[in-house]
Specification:
447 residues, alpha+beta, Triger factor/SurA peptide-binding fold, Chitinase A, domain 3, 3 domains, 16 helices, 15% strand, flat, disordered N terminus
């Protein structure tokens, strides 16, 4: 649900700009401190919610401006506390959200048509929206840092719950993983480099880099827009890519071949703007040969046998042998990106892992299998089921940490509510006459 809300909120700048571009008569409907809230912002969020199927608990023309106002209180506090978000903090998130929009609307061209602006501007506005979200979250984290929950508080909370209000816990599992990237033979790499050199020569002879990117680039997200990535800071790009991209000065030239964890690239400059750059690129990925894939699977099979025969523990093997940088320092234990915990509902697992884990028992180690990792690369893997639980009503014995999270959440919500009410009291707020007839979540805006 949090992911859906963040996605919905992330569009408000885009939709506000779209409404303004469509010549809706704009007006200032709220003022919070010295920050105005425009009708176009509110209308933009309402249209976004309508598109997403999001329902409001009250009048959207009351709910939306109040939420914007609350966000402005947190952003003002971020400014007072000198909270900053660097470009490197935004790496990947802009691309992830553009990908979600592409999946919803069908293509980047349709995104541009829907928002009535070029992709580069959409990316810039997304980046600013995400930056604000991060600032707000950091202020909240700072405010909530002092909250503690004692075991006695958890017991009192649980014992006070009516039996039919005790939450149901879905079936969950914890999974450990070891991966290996099959080697790519030198001939395959040289073939890819030769193809990229051919593309460079074709561009030098007058062909369009963009057309070649559409036809051949294996970065599916950017290929639709001719390989264009939009304006980015150096910290938002992989270091190897950024070093070459920022060294370019002539938009008619093509870079040397760049190797990153995604594959091999050539890059062309579009425009530099201060410390940001817009480039297009073509990505080609080495292909794993069948014999190299089988070799990696055989190696993992041997490692699995060593673990089964108690010659090495799974967590030790993961730390020293796994190629998965995200899990090896954690002994191979996977972390659910949706919840930040190590527990997964089956549908939260990557599909290839979910299929393998479904029939496994606790402590069992899988046969080696192939999968596509988060970098869109083929890897070989084995997994071990650390824990598995059936769906059940929560108990203090089995689900103490979850109940602790409920108590923590309740205390956090109360603290944030108190903070917002105190900020309301100290902040100048003006609401236009036609926007006052509301039942607000936080009474106190109208003084």
């Amino acid at each position: 649900m949090k992911r859906i809300v963040l996605l919905f909120l992330s569009f408000h700048l885009l939709m506000g700009a779209t409404v303004a571009q469509d010549n809706v008569v704009d007006e200032v409907v709220w003022v919070v401190g010295d920050e105005p809230i425009l009708r176009s912002e509110v209308e933009g969020q309402r249209l976004r919610a309508q598109f997403e199927g999001v329902k409001f608990s009250g009048d959207p023309y009351c709910v939306i401006p109040e939420q914007i106002a609350v966000n402005k209180l947190f952003l003002h506090q971020a400014d007072l506390d000198s909270v900053v978000v660097s470009d490197i903090d935004l790496v990947g998130e802009v691309d992830r959200r553009i990908t979600i929009m592409t999946q919803r609307l069908g293509s980047r061209e349709k995104i541009e048509e829907y928002f009535n602006m070029p992709m580069a501007k959409i990316r810039d506005m997304q980046r600013e929206t995400i930056r604000e979200e991060y600032l707000i979250e950091r202020v909240k984290s700072s405010l909530l840092r002092s909250i503690t929950v004692t075991p006695a508080e958890v017991r009192r909370y649980f014992n006070a719950l009516p039996e039919d209000s005790i939450p149901m816990i879905p079936a969950q599992t914890e999974v450990e993983i070891i991966t290996m990237e099959p080697q790519v033979d030198a001939a395959n790499v040289e073939s890819i480099k030769e193809r990229l050199r051919e593309f460079t020569e074709r561009v030098n002879q007058g062909e369009s880099f963009s057309t070649l990117a559409v036809m051949y680039s294996e970065d599916r997200a950017s290929a639709r827009t001719g390989g264009e990535l939009g304006f980015m800071g150096k910290g938002e790009l992989l270091p190897e890519f950024a070093n070459v991209a920022f060294s370019l000065n002539d938009p008619t030239k093509v870079s040397k071949i760049v190797e990153t964890e995604y594959g091999f690239h050539i890059i062309q400059l579009i425009e530099k703007r201060g410390d940001r750059i817009n480039v297009r690129h073509i990505l080609l990925k080495p292909k794993v040969a069948a014999d190299e894939r089988n070799l990696a699977l055989m190696r993992l099979d041997s490692i699995a046998d060593m673990i089964r025969n108690d010659k090495v523990r799974f967590d030790e093997a993961a730390r020293f042998l796994s190629h998965d940088k995200d899990t090896r320092n954690n002994g191979g234990l996977m972390v659910n990106p949706r919840t930040g915990t190590t527990r997964f509902e089956l549908e939260d697992l990557p599909s290839e892992i979910g299929k393998v884990v479904y029939e496994m028992n606790v402590g069992e180690i899988s046969r080696p299998f192939s999968m596509i990792n988060t970098k869109d690369k083929e890897v070989s893997a084995i997994v071990r089921v650390k824990t598995k639980s059936k769906a059940h009503r929560a108990t203090l014995v089995d689900d103490f940490q979850l109940m602790k999270q409920y108590v923590q959440s309740s205390k956090s919500e109360q603290m944030l509510t108190d903070w917002i009410r105190e900020k309301q009291r100290k902040t100048y707020v003006r609401i236009s006459e036609n926007w006052r007839n509301c039942t607000f979540q936080y009474p106190g805006w109208i003084k």
